[in-house]
Amino acid sequence: MNEKEFAELSAGHALAALSPEDERAYHEALAAHPEWQDQVDLDAQVAGFLAEGAGEEAPPVEIRARLLAQISGMPQLGAPAVAAEPAGDDVAVAEPAVASETAVASEPAAGEEPREHVVAGPSTEAIQTVERRTWTRGLFALVASAALLVGVGWGVGSLVERARTPIEVQALEQIESAPDAQTVTGQFADGGEAVLHWSDELDKVVLTTDDAPEIPADRSFELWFVRGDQPISAGVFDPSDEVTALLSGEFEPGDVIAVTVEQKGGSPDGSPTTDPIITIPTA
Known about the structure:
Elements: H1 3-14, H2 20-32, H3 37-51, H4 61-72, E1 101-106, E2 115-120, H5 124-150, H6 159-164, H7 167-177, E3 182-187, E4 193-199, E5 204-209, E6 219-227, E7 230-237, E8 243-246, E9 256-263, E10 278-281
Antiparallel strand pairs: 1-2, 3-4, 4-5, 5-8, 6-7, 6-9, 9-10
Helix pairs in contact: 1-2, 1-3, 1-5, 4-5
């Protein structure tokens, strides 16, 4: 399974719209590719916004018409076949045709009127199997479109902008709004400042700075939770004019947050290979 296929399953999972088979495939793919968790988090966030609703006021007619137009363009199962007309004066009761049957005109014999007979097509189960994945894709796109259209005037207008906001920026906003939000300013070894933001309640920590020192292109900054004498890697970030870095892993009150310069992508053995360029206590 590639990342695009997983994104379709993730969208359906967020909307609780997957079949049992696709749900199993979703969990197996996520277990095999934990790096796709960001896609899962984003889909869950979008679904959460949709679940909040858009208020009591009814949308204008033109929005309803646009949504109905989208719905009409989605895959539909075939309509029931038309029963055959009886020939001559004979009265016959035609058996109703199921959704998977199609009425087809037969060649008439000499002197007879054309007649229709019903031939069997694909079963309903086969049609559903083929179209289930298409429906999942279309469902998420349709619901997201509905939220966007309704949000023009009913309080969900920030949905798209919010979904595009980097997760570390969202985390910083959440911390700043938390009742137990705390900040501490630290100094880099060669000058400049960085600010640590955290919330015990949210279990989130974010480092911000516009003074990070310059480092070679083949190096990265690595974040660490220093718990007693044990450094625990908390992710990496690359040089930037303005850094907003969300620490990964479990934060414990009293941890010291440190930053080292490591090879590109982080320390190969999970331990710092250089001295910290900054340390900020949270005690």
